[in-house]
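Aim 2 progress. For Glutathione S-transferase, the working sequence is reproduced below.
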Amino acid sequence: MDLYFSPLACSMATRVALYEAGAEANYLEVDPPTKKVLKDGSDFRTVNPIGLVPTLRTDEGVVLTENAAILQYVADRFPQSGLGAAAGIDRTRLHQWLCFIGTELHKGLFVPVLDRKASQDVKAYVLEKNLSRLDYLDNYLKGREFLLDHFSVADAYLVTVINWTMATPPIELSKWPNVKAYYERLRQRPSVAKAVAEEFELYKAEQARKKAAA
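Predicted structure tokens for this construct:
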């Protein structure tokens, strides 16, 4: 399968899940400004017209988009990994957390704060309105190791999103001790540590390219 990704973007969650599952994949880096696939210079929009990562092409040639959907596909494709959840309330809980991370944290909180074109007033409004999501998460994680009763694709997504606090100074993890402890604990997990280290190196190379082109 082919995973189209950009360094340290939300697509890293799928990399974590694939590493956790011990699955083989081709990792194809997409340059965010140009939407070019670095490996061959092709236009990524011929694969995903919206131009967003992650995008996954399965071994059967089916193209999948949207982070939550791709993560659930990986969990179902590799059931022995334990990344998913059994049908019923457990699977619904998994859906719940994927939706919460995608809407309340990823799009609702971090995207506006990370947007260089957003005004300080907009960012201040977003922080005032949406930091309560971290309050909720912090309370939930008290005494818990994972979001469910085991490491799942929801954890792969959450640790990816929390990792963005490195680039968002107004969101200081020390204010949410349970979230901070969760993040630090998961950063030690081999699949997460490997993904973060590899993508951080790719991110530095990406920034060097931008600097050279400026």
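The chain has two domains: 2-81, 89-191. This observation will guide construct design in the next reporting period.
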